[in-house]
Specification:
heterodimer, A: 133 residues, two-stranded antiparallel sheet, 6 helices, 2 strands, 5% strand, elongated, B: 158 residues, alpha+beta, eight-stranded antiparallel beta sheet, 4 helices, 25% helix
């Protein structure tokens, strides 16, 4: 299934809210009813239901068939489409920045050597050093 | 030494923000981000690529041009124009790939903040349109479902 622009917009809009992200984190550990989801958030069931509707429209969650509880469960695909994108960036930039760390270390070493060289040329040096021997 | 964490977030539908700390003063980091002889040593992307072209005219209105080449001789180029430049602190530039796989021009804002010798670099990539962002997304939309699941907690607690 190819992600459409519309679907991705809905995914990112749904993920923009911290309560909805917390709901998804909870559902990642297993399905839960509306009452079970409302409990830890100190929110009314209607308020939670609103968030669940947004998540459902984005395709991020679905409802179970069990008549009474109608438990919500996480649908991994749309989230995966969004995270794949982020994952690609992360991998490339982790590699880039690791090399940048090495470049910076080299610059710092070079700067230190320059300072040391100036000190050796007889510029003022710390008293402690002068006292040794 | 352990590598500092790279944080990647999507604060809005068209933006992507990367944040990373570096153990160096911001003037030094800024040099490493903007001096061609330093940039071409680290801005290489996936393994196997080199950067034969790295031209940077660092001033507002100045242009930059990057070309990467892999072992098979395949090339990828991109460039843009600097819109804002505050040395050691802030850089705003347009960014456009030759083959337009990002679906057009993006605006990249880089900010450097130093605290006790450690510099935090945050890079905001803003896509011109929803289509542009989706094009970037399709480039990365591979299998990786398992890997995404592993990253789930990270994204959710971002």
């Amino acid at each position: 299934m190819k992600p459409t622009s519309y679907a991705l917009d809905a995914t990112f809009a749904a993920l923009a809210d911290p309560t909805r992200r917390a709901i998804l984190a909870r559902l990642a550990t297993g399905e839960a009813s509306v009452a079970e989801l409302a409990e830890p958030f100190d929110m009314s069931q209607p308020a939670i239901s609103k968030h669940l509707k947004v998540l459902e429209r984005a395709g991020l969650i679905s409802r179970g068939r069990e008549a009474q509880r109608r438990p919500r469960r996480l649908e991994p695909r749309p989230l995966a489409d969004a995270t794949d994108w982020i994952e690609r960036y992360r991998r490339i930039w982790e590699g880039n920045y690791k090399r940048l760390d090495a470049v910076l270390q080299e610059l710092k070493d070079k700067q230190r050597r320059t300072v040391d060289a100036l000190v050796d040329e007889g510029k003022p040096r710390p008293k402690q050093k002068r006292r040794t021997k | 030494m352990k590598q500092p964490a790279l944080k990647v977030t999507t604060p809005s539908e068209r933006e992507l923000v990367m944040t990373r700390e570096f153990a160096a003063p911001r003037g030094m980091v800024f040099d490493a981000l903007t001096k061609p002889e330093l940039v071409r040593r680290w801005l290489l992307g996936p393994p196997g690529w080199t950067m034969p072209v790295c031209d940077i005219d660092l001033r507002v209105g100045g242009k930059y041009r990057y070309v990467w080449r892999n072992a098979d001789g395949r090339e990828m180029g991109m460039g843009g124009t600097f819109k804002e430049m505050v040395r050691a602190s802030r850089l705003v530039a347009t960014e456009s790939y030759d083959d337009h796989w990002t679906g057009g021009e993006t605006l990249v804002t880089t900010e450097l903040v130093e605290t006790r010798g450690t510099t935090t670099v945050s890079t905001t990539v803003r896509y011109a349109t929803r289509e542009a962002r989706d094009a970037a997304l399709k480039m990365g939309a591979t299998k990786g479902l398992e890997a995404s699941y592993v990253r789930l907690d990270e994204l959710l607690t971002a």
